[in-house]
Design goal:
Layout lengths: L1 H14 L3 H6 L2 E12 L4 H17 L7 E7 L6 E8 L1 H4 L5 H11 L4 E11 L15 E9 L4 H11 L8 E7 L5 E8 L2 H5 L2 H4 L9 E11 L17
C-alpha cells in the first residue's frame, strides 16, 4: 500500500510541472555556444545590461545553465562567449519564451554589443574525457578546428585513438549548425593559466591529424561567474 501511495504522489508531482519545463530540463548531447562583441568603450554598460538580462532568465525560471566567459587571449580579446550544454533536441525546442527573451535582449544587451555568432554543437563522448558540460573552472582553453572536406571520419578516428591517454577533462564537440563545416570545438577547463600551458601533450593535436586540418584557432577564456547563470557549483572568480 505504501508503494502505491509513493507512485501516486510521484505522478501527481510530475503533473504539476508544465510539459515545456519538463522538456526544457531533458538532458542530451547538444550545446549552444554564441559570441557577443561589446562596443568599444561600452564594456561596463554591456556587463550591467547582461546581468539584467540574466535576471530575466531567473524570473522566467529558466532551467538551463548559462556559462559566461570573456576572451582573454586571442584575436577576439575582450569579446564575450556565452553557452549552455547538455541538452536534448527537445530541450532546445523549449527555451524561455522567445519573444520575451528577445524583447529583454533588445532593451538590455543589444544597445551595448554586436551579436557575432551562434552555433549548435554535438558532444562527442568517444573523443572526450569528462561530461557534456565543462567544469566551471576559472580558465578555459577554446580550440576551434576546421577540417578539410572529406576528412571528418579520419579526424575523429585519430582523436578517438588518443582518447584513452587523456589525463584531464577534454571535451570535443562537432558543429551541427552555425558556420562552415566540418568544424570541431575542444574545451579544456583548467584552474589556472599555468595548468593550460604546462600541459604540452594535452594542448597539441595528434600528429596524424595535422594534414587533415584546414585551420586551427586557440583562445584562452576567463570564466565570469557574475555573467553566468545556474552554474553547477560556486567557482573561484577568474583573473581579469
Amino acid at each position: 500500500m505504501r508503494h502505491c501511495w509513493l507512485v501516486v504522489v510521484g505522478l501527481l508531482s510530475s503533473a504539476t510541472v508544465p510539459p515545456p519545463l519538463l522538456a526544457q530540463s531533458e538532458k542530451g548531447p547538444y550545446a549552444r555556444i554564441a559570441v557577443l562583441r561589446p562596443h568599444d568603450g561600452d564594456t561596463v554598460d554591456f556587463e550591467a545590461g547582461y546581468i539584467r538580462h540574466l535576471d530575466f532568465h531567473r524570473q522566467a525560471k529558466d532551467a538551463w545553465v548559462w556559462y559566461g566567459w570573456t576572451i582573454w587571449a586571442g584575436d577576439r580579446q575582450r569579446w564575450f562567449v556565452y553557452a549552455t550544454f547538455g541538452h536534448s533536441a527537445a530541450s532546445l525546442d523549449h527555451p524561455v519564451p522567445p519573444a520575451d527573451d528577445e524583447r529583454d535582449n533588445v532593451v538590455n544587451v543589444a544597445p551595448h554589443a554586436e551579436f557575432t555568432g551562434n552555433a549548435i554543437l554535438e558532444y562527442l563522448p568517444a573523443l572526450s574525457r569528462g561530461a557534456a558540460q565543462p567544469s566551471p573552472s576559472p580558465r578555459l582553453e577554446l580550440t576551434t578546428v576546421e577540417v578539410k572536406p572529406g576528412s571528418r571520419a579520419d579526424f575523429e578516428a585519430a582523436l578517438q585513438a588518443r582518447q584513452p591517454s587523456l589525463a584531464d577533462e577534454t571535451l570535443w564537440y562537432r558543429m551541427v549548425a552555425g558556420g562552415t563545416t566540418p568544424r570541431y570545438v575542444r574545451l579544456r577547463a583548467r584552474a589556472s593559466l599555468s595548468a593550460i600551458l604546462d600541459d604540452r601533450t594535452g594542448r597539441t593535436l595528434p600528429d596524424r591529424v595535422h594534414p587533415l586540418v584546414a585551420r586551427e584557432t586557440v583562445e584562452i577564456l576567463n570564466l565570469r561567474p557574475t555573467l553566468s547563470y545556474g552554474l553547477p557549483r560556486e567557482p573561484v572568480q577568474a583573473a581579469r
